[in-house]
Write a structure and sequence with these properties.
Layout: H1 2-19, E1 47-49, E2 53-54, E3 57-58, H2 63-70, E4 75-79, E5 84-89, E6 94-99, E7 105-111, E8 118-119, H3 129-136, E9 141-145, E10 150-155, E11 160-165, E12 177-182
Parallel strand pairs: 1-8
Antiparallel strand pairs: 1-2, 2-3, 4-5, 5-6, 6-7, 7-12, 9-10, 10-11, 11-12
């Protein structure tokens, strides 16, 4: 899972750094030539409802139904060691994590730097951690992945999670949201526990 989080965090941190005045990405860290900015074409109304949906993508749907709603097939990447398949629609800023074993959707997430996606309480991508805590309180379980430079705040009772940049040396993006996900309310165990 380290590779999954590292790749995803690098993608979003790079995009976040490029969008903050006074902070530039290094050589080879920018967007790929011809690749859309993540979230530049959000799905449906872009509303994130805890335990239910991200735009038109609902937890009750299959990946095939989500593909039909988007209008095209996703990029599909398997992570056998972690037991998941990650489906990505980059322009829409949408990730769908599916269990390899059960084929069930684990998490649907908005990712990137677009402020178009927002939760039912007005929390957007790139908002600071304090905005999450103001809106939803501190009743989350926190998972810190130091090597991958991310912190995951998971509200198990709501079916809502926030992925935050954990890069103190980059003040403007540190503790900013790069991912907002929904899952079925309950105890969703991480595919990999954080390092002690």
């Amino acid at each position: 899972m380290a590779d999954v989080w590292r790749v995803l965090a690098l993608l979003c941190v790079t995009a976040a750094l490029a969008s903050v005045p006074g902070v530039a990405a290094g050589p080879g860290e920018g967007e790929g030539v011809g690749e859309p900015k993540p979230g530049s074409n959000p799905l449906g109304d872009a509303l994130i409802v805890p335990g239910q949906r991200v735009g038109l993508a609902r937890l009750a749907m299959t990946v095939e139904q989500i593909s039909a709603a988007v209008g095209r097939a996703p990029k599909r990447t398997e992570f056998p060691q972690e037991g998941i398949v990650l489906h990505e629609w980059r322009a829409e800023g949408l990730w769908v994590s599916v269990s390899l074993q059960t084929k069930a959707i684990r998490v649907i997430s908005a990712f990137g730097t677009s402020d178009k996606y927002r939760t039912d309480k007005g929390v957007n991508l790139l908002h600071p951690r304090s905005k999450v805590e103001e809106a939803y309180g501190k009743g989350y379980k926190e998972y810190v992945y130091t090597k991958e430079e991310i912190t995951l705040l998971r509200y198990h009772d709501l079916g809502l999670q926030f992925g935050l940049v954990n890069r103190p040396s980059q003040g403007p993006v540190h503790n900013r949201i790069f991912q907002i996900g929904v899952f079925k309310p309950g105890d969703l165990v991480p595919v990999r526990p954080p390092a002690p």
